[in-house]
Amino acid sequence: MKKRVKSASKPSTRNGFTMMEALLALLVVSVCLQVGTAYLRVAQKLVAEPVDTQREFMILQLRHFVAQATTLEVESERIELVVRHERFTIEQDGSRLVKRGGYEILDEQVETVRFCEEGEAVFVEIDGRRFQIA
């Protein structure tokens, strides 16, 4: 009698990756490296160039406040303005830039403050840096 040999399909026991899986993994790794490198460059620039965010917010606050003013008088050491029928003065007090009509501290650690008006524009110069506020 002849023996029948059953050829049962065995699942493949090959270990490893196909070429497509390897290429896909390589693509994912390269994209991650590019994104990571871009983030590191941005972080390096942020650390290298310190930004005085308090001063930037103060300038935005001044611009908003001056935009609401109905009258504005500019002197070299102060600005006097009327907002909603109230009179306010922005000036240096020691090492601070303050808004009086109350006492609101706008910026600290200020050495010199100078205001000037050129045509329609109003500028404030703080420690040698000049900002347009109106």
From TrEMBL:
Which superkingdom is the protein from?
Answer: Bacteria
Q: What is this protein called?
A: Uncharacterized protein
Organism listed in the record: Dubosiella muris
